[in-house]
Amino acid sequence: MTRLIATLRGLLRRRQIDGEIEEELRDHLERAIERYRSQGLPPQEARRLALRDLGGLTQTMESTRDVRAIWLDTFWRDLTHGARLLRRSPRFTLTALTVLVLGIGSTTAIFSVAYAMLVRPLPYKDPERLVFVAEHQGSGIAWPNFDDWRHRASSFDGLASSLADAVVVTAGQFPKRLDSRSVTANFFGVLGAAPSQGRLFDESDSRPDAPSTTVVSYAFSVREFGSAAAAIGQTVSFNRQPYTVIGVLPPGFRYMTPADVYLLLEPQVAANYRGMQSRGNHTTLFAVGRLERGVDVTSARAEMQNIVGALALEYPETNKSRSSIYLVPLAERVVGEMAPTLTVLAGAVALLLLIACVNLASLLLNRSASRQHEFSIRAAMGGSRWSLIRQLLVENGLLVATGGMLGALAGAAILSGLVRVAPPDTPRIDEVRLDLAVLSITTLFSCACAFLFGVLPAFRTAGNRESLLRSGRSSTRQTSLLRRGLLVGEVAVATVLLSGSGLMVQTMVRLARVDPGFDPHNLQMVMFSPWGPGWSDLRRQAFFPEALERLRAVPGVEQAAIAYSFPILGSNWWNWFTVAGRTIPPGAVMMDLPSAGMVPVSEGYFDTLKIPVIKGRTFNRFDTADAEPVAIINSSLVQLYFRDEEPIGRQIRLAGSRPTEGYGPWRTIVGIVGDVKQHGIDQLTPQQIFMPILQQTRASTAFAVARTRGTVTSSAIEAAIHDVDRSVPVFNDRTVEQLMREASSRRRLAAIVLSVFAAAAVLLAAIGLYGVIAQNVGVRRREIGVRMALGATSDQILRLFLRHGLLVVATGIGCGLLAAVAAARSLATLVFGVTPRDPATLAAVAALLTAVTLLASYLPARSATRVDPVEALRSE
Amino acid sequence: MNKTQLLQGTLDLLILRILDLGPNHGWGISNRLQQISKEGLKTSQGSLYPALHRLELRGEVRSEMTPSENNRRARVYTITPPGRKRLTEETETWEAFALSMRRILREGR
Lengths: 876, 109
Known about the structure:
The complex is a heterodimer. In chain A, 54% of the residues lie in helices and 14% in strands. Chain A contains 29 helices and 21 strands. The two termini of chain A are 55 Å apart. The two termini of chain B are 23 Å apart. Chain B has one domain: Arc Repressor Mutant, subunit A (Orthogonal Bundle), CATH 1.10.10. In chain B, a hairpin with a 5-residue loop joins β2 and β3. Chain B is globular and about 60 Å long.
């Protein structure tokens, strides 16, 4: 510390010291001149002799000042000298910086993502003991099954379950819908979560006589009450029922999907909400368990398998086909299918960093080879080995520091871009941030590389001064072989990345061409919830026609409709049904019956979405609750269940809880419509049964959709609904076009990421190839000169160097294609409409890479043909 | 031993010796050195000032800007106790070295 202060004071006093040195020397000089003059010499001569004795005023001042100079001065001088050198060779500097930025930036971004998702432990207590449990192949659990599990299993310290839901909050002018999660009382205990204020649920809260309580997110408490502490004890109205806030979660708490509100599951089960008391009713309930100490996943799975097997025998009606368990570590489930993709990506990017370093090494080796002359001269003129090495250290440090800084910026940019294009439900995406540890590792890696290849040659140089002035070229031969081998790797990696990106781009093109079955353009859609206490069927039957009238009156709206589900978003009601006139064999179970997605829709629905009517009629305003019950089916259902029959005029009826039991009236089929991609663009079209919404009004979430002339906003639609009833909660988070985009967001992410990295890899490979061939040309100038002097044409010279490039490129592409075919499996779940080993894509990749790399080798090879033989021979 | 290193050490020693006689400024030291030069040791004026500043940084001499005759300021150097200690030590080393050199050269003859 005192040294630092002394240094700083020295810096501040430098001007003064400089002045004093000058004064001292001038004093000396004047006295010397006086003496010579007193010896009778003329003033000019006296001055000349005095200066000679002193060895020059400036020189002496410099050397005196050097004594005073501190390390900071030397460093600063080396730094400015280094910067000047780098500026003087912009081609080298730019290339090296590009390599560094590409390498550090992309690896830092991807490793940060991979680290956040794969490596960083889940933000729960002892996360390695947490497991995710679901029924057969990961499907939702029927509550009675979960209840049996938790009573019978002994592998768990605790087994909790939860399901994602939404609640309507009545606060402010209009009701709002919030994401919520219904959890069992032990849920937070199993996760090991601690409250930031108040307390979390415990068993006492789930007793039937307990008051209604809620735990809320930190963000919600701040938004609604100003602070977490202020929220405790407040009463909030969810779904028009009062709840007391007993606790606030820490900021950033999240389990699977984000939620603002946590409610208890047990009271919901007691009220048979969603029919949860039925063993045949599989909602989106999933369990999370904390393993007992000493119990591993395999033995827990084995125990659960036995329990599930026993339940299948006890309840064959519902559990026969659900005789297997799905139990995986929670971390595996959270990241799920992203894990292999990420691992592949991280691997590819690690290779990218390696390529970048190889290129950097190559550049630095070239540079030090071309500067050997400079080094030799400096050494011969008495420059110490240390000053040479210090200079190189500073110079390379400057390069890597600049590259590292720009690389960090590039990494942050890439990362924020990635987070932006990532699907919002991407696991742990909110935990992703530029990881400093990752950044330091990538930068250190580059530093090590720069030191190794930029500074070590100087040790060698300084070691044998004599030989250097003669020639320093013999050592480049074996390194160039190594470099060529690494280049093959570079081209191979570029091939793998490029074919992946090619496949994903093709996938995106094909997805864009898929006909969704309806016209998504100029559609405005909002969701609303005519549901809760006070909402009877009668009220809804009055509400819908009035809302439709208001919607159609909005200027710019051509047609409007209301439905209980929406294309792309999936089916929210799947049911078995029976066809009149077809006998059900005795002993048949539910699964033997035909099934379909059920969609209650208003009149005008098919018009609004422009879903083609194939036969019969659509619904109209006379299809009311009192009219004859009717249904419309889609082509897929005809294909499946009415292949040889005329469906129009036939009657169908929904099945109740038993195959022979009916639910609702018999409905006459009056029309057939085209298929719609109900479950997503990339999914098969499901069979569907449409019913008039006035004849089937019970559902919590409805969609109001309007075909517009392109000028109507969703808030206009929202206002139209509030015109009819201000108490209806309306929520619209996405437009239809957003919905369509989101449907392919995971693929788009893969396509973008792969394309970015493929471009980086191709660029790096091209730079690498260029460097090696350019260096080769440089080293063989004399040989070229001899060849040309002996009559070689420039074509022959060109071919001589292109052959090297071609050999590397061909080997690299060959290896790359093999690797791409092997890696294709990891893309299998992402591609759509092409096979992961699409020969056309692979051929295109090979052609593109050949073209780029040939260009990269042609440019330096051409410079070889411009060698002047006379000059080349003379220069030796 | 490197030639310059030898000279550097010698120069330091000579400066300390001159200052041991009393405080002096650069010009004065230089004149004394010139006298010594006539006695057979060659030093250059140019290397005097770096050496003085180096000695000051090592704490073996200290300096002060003092007004001198004809309205000029001169830096006057004074030997410090560490400087005196070094002078004694190196003088002994030199004498021992010179003695052994003489002995070797005589016996070698």
